[in-house]
Amino acid sequence: MKTTRLGRQTVRLGRPPAVLSWANIGGRMESQGPLAADFDELDDDPFFGRKTWEQGESAMQERCLRRALDRAHAAPEDVDAVLSGDLLNQCIGSSFALRSFGIPFWGVYSACATMGEALSLAAILVDGGLARIAGAAASSHFCTAERQYRQPIPYGSQRTPTAQWTVTGAGCCLLGTADRGPFVTHVVRGRIVDLGITDAANMGAAMAPAACDTLCALFRETDTVPADYDLIVTGDLGQLGREVTAELLEREGFVPGDRYTDCGLLIYDREGQDMHAGGSGAGCSASVLCGHLLGGLARGRWQRIVFAPTRALLSPTSTFQGESIPAVCHAVVLENASGAGEETVCSI
Amino acid sequence: MKTTRLGRQTVRLGRPPAVLSWANIGGRMESQGPLAADFDELDDDPFFGRKTWEQGESAMQERCLRRALDRAHAAPEDVDAVLSGDLLNQCIGSSFALRSFGIPFWGVYSACATMGEALSLAAILVDGGLARIAGAAASSHFCTAERQYRQPIPYGSQRTPTAQWTVTGAGCCLLGTADRGPFVTHVVRGRIVDLGITDAANMGAAMAPAACDTLCALFRETDTVPADYDLIVTGDLGQLGREVTAELLEREGFVPGDRYTDCGLLIYDREGQDMHAGGSGAGCSASVLCGHLLGGLARGRWQRIVFAPTRALLSPTSTFQGESIPAVCHAVVLENASGAGEETVCSI
pTM, whole model, 2 decimals? Predict the structure, then answer.
């Protein structure tokens, strides 16, 4: 099968790369959440054995990459590229994580949608024969994010009900050529959608229109409907954002129903853990993908899922300057059947 | 010709994308430099008509993209992806620039090597038929960079002799399928090289080993030598970094001689403009590429060049925490002859 641009946003990969291995890691809050059993490693120490939170965030990505390499029985020399990013200024979470591996490294910045973009590009490299093995990784850390974006943690500032909690976590997966999946079969690049929302404590609502835009592009360009997927998971829209997205999709004629959920809702027990609107951060979708979702696919719980993390386009500076919060959503389709060799993917 | 992974770092593109159009913009200092005639637009106003420097930086990228679209006789709807980045926290320079176009947008972060990474990925998308037209863009702004990385500008802090001056500028180019070049023929992804340098005011020296590593990978994996190229241009190593890179290359047996220069040296008259070690910033290599270099290729001044911008992996936080400054260099080969259709590229 040939790699085909199905429309302006969706590409169907002709030789769908297999996810050879994956690994994730979380912190204390993640260890108390409903997905705890889906983590490879849960560490109570917010420094992850290092001296600063930022170094701890790098340590998380580093440990995930090491574990993913071990599981794929691969050495760093076998990997031709890693695409990785995080929320820290100048993306130091990823760059210092990658420092010791000697693997060619392309940095991506797509905020909380980083794993969607990194996975898309890694898949394109392997599909095109441009890399033997390519990795995708992302992380976030509650303490580094609070320090950088919000208030010093000892202040104990109150959060609004719409606020989300930045996940302390990371995820990494390695893509290559193999007979067994899960496979990355489609990549959907997102467009910027700006409805003029300016409340940085309500990012779910700001990002919902972007999630809807990308999911509709996928459905239209592949001629599918939500029922063709076993699970549709946005990144970290949280409770409110999930509701808005579901409503927007319904208005477009795509009723997602119960098969639609959100990584930010899955990772915490919102009420038991007092997590307000849910989890967020680049490490939220990355750690949920590289544990719960890929694990569920591998075990046959689902056969075909859409992973669609969203990002907000803002910084403390842009917020101070009164800018709105545009958003983007990057999606990939993951399937247990590669569809390779078939002339057309029948059920799509 | 088939797209081929020549080695771990270098890919030869089988259907080399043509650079359909390019555009750049600069500020006051750039208008006083030796490349002034190679800029499409030079604006004395550091706000570029907006209210803040950061908005001005977005305006630069926006104007470049509009001009590149005009020159390619393309509408935003014809472009399937733009890859873009800048030096600002959370890359707001690029994301707000792209906001109004409705073009699918993947954010990249590779500091001063952003244009190298963006161009590489855009070329891969067009080469593989994954995008009809793909854009690459990057920017930097002296005032936004000083405010974010160094001291408030009114302090008038003294700079060390090894310090570089952040270019106020942006560049954008659009890649597509065409009979006429320049063409992107090879992509080289860089590895992180860390020699333990910690002086953030001497980034040229920190980045030189990465430039050498990537250029040597290109030479070895394509079986070429510096003399096979008319021009080899690193990103913004400045005076000292250029000297170190030349020496390191010579030690590896690749004598670059006069055909090797650096965008940071080209853009300013170092002595006349009191620019210390030269220019830097993501907008340095981007604006030099999208004017001087692509223009020179199109006019036949050069037939084959290597564009190899470098990045430092650091942030104010990592520097405060005593981290070293690892570096990466991402390169592309640009040629007037595409080499497509030939079984082997003869002279390479």
Answer: 0.95
